[in-house]
Specification:
The chain is of the alpha+beta class. The protein is built from twelve helices and ten strands. The protein is globular. Pfam families: DUF6597, HTH_18.
Length: 274
């Protein structure tokens, strides 16, 4: 497996965190497992699949193949991914509120849903996919997607103080108070809560819990030898039960069921997205 991360061009930095290209051949001896449980994350993505189509299973359903380009809305429940035999993807990582600014759709309407990008962004996505398929290098792929999103700048909904406040919340790993964030957004607390549903898709307190959970989960992916007790303390959980309750709420299972052996064969998408 190899992946390459690219910083966004200066003009894109207001709404894109970065682009990474991931390439995995699961047929090689000793390769990682193509089955991956993706737990909820506060980060929003737009994904372009260039080799085998990705299949997704939600809860106890069947695996269903996704389109080549998908937009992933806010996620509250884990999903299982089948990445196929050969997986190559270009993933655009968006900053908080940027999906709303790009799509113009209240994100509370697309919680736990993903969409064929062509249905929302139009047939121009076919041209992007064609260029990505023809691109010879990772740098070429990066240039294709960044040039596309540069063309979307004029269509973005305006940034608000709320967006900057939520970026502060992400950088603070979910530790900032609602009163402080509402003040930074130039809104009352009630207005702030409504704006969060529209631009983030979730109530602000739940979003803060998700940010902290995501960071704890990513840390475990990076450092599987660190105990869950240490991780709970590191990320500011009041006690072990508080951490277990949040972990089970988002991941669907208790933390001790995630074994070091599982992480050793995992793609670790959460860490890559960071």
């Amino acid at each position: 497996m190899y992946h390459t991360f690219y910083e966004p061009q200066p003009a894109l930095q207001e709404y894109i965190s970065g682009v990474f290209v991931l390439d995995i051949d699961f047929t090689l001896p000793g390769s990682l497992s193509p089955i991956y449980t993706f737990v909820p994350s506060h980060t929003r993505f737009i994904c372009f699949y260039l080799h085998d189509q990705v299949k997704v299973r939600k809860q106890n359903g069947e695996f269903i193949a996704r389109e080549r380009a998908i937009i992933i809305g806010p996620q509250l429940t884990p999903v299982t991914l089948d990445l196929g035999k050969k997986h190559q993807t270009v993933i655009v990582v968006l900053k908080p509120c940027s999906m709303y600014r790009l799509l113009g759709v209240p994100l509370e309407e697309i919680v736990d849903r993903d969409f064929d990008a062509r249905l929302i962004l139009g047939r121009e996505i076919d041209e992007v996919l064609e260029k990505l398929m023809e691109a010879r290098t990772d740098q070429d792929k990066n240039e294709v997607v960044q040039n596309y999103f540069l063309c979307k700048l004029s269509e973005l909904k305006p940034a608000l103080p709320f967006d900057r406040a939520m970026l502060q919340q992400v950088n603070a790993m979910g530790s900032l108070s609602m009163d402080y964030l509402a003040s930074q957004s130039c809104l009352s607390v009630r207005q702030f809560e409504r704006k969060s549903l529209e631009r983030i898709g979730l109530p602000p307190k739940l979003y803060a819990r998700m940010i902290r959970f995501t960071n704890a989960y990513r840390f475990k992916e990076d450092f599987p030898h660190i105990t869950w007790n240490e991780i709970a303390y590191r990320f500011g959980y009041f006690d072990q039960m508080h951490f277990i309750r949040d972990f089970k709420y988002f991941a669907g299972f208790i933390p001790h069921l995630l074994k070091k052996e599982d992480l050793a064969t995992s793609v670790r998408f959460q860490t890559l997205a960071n």
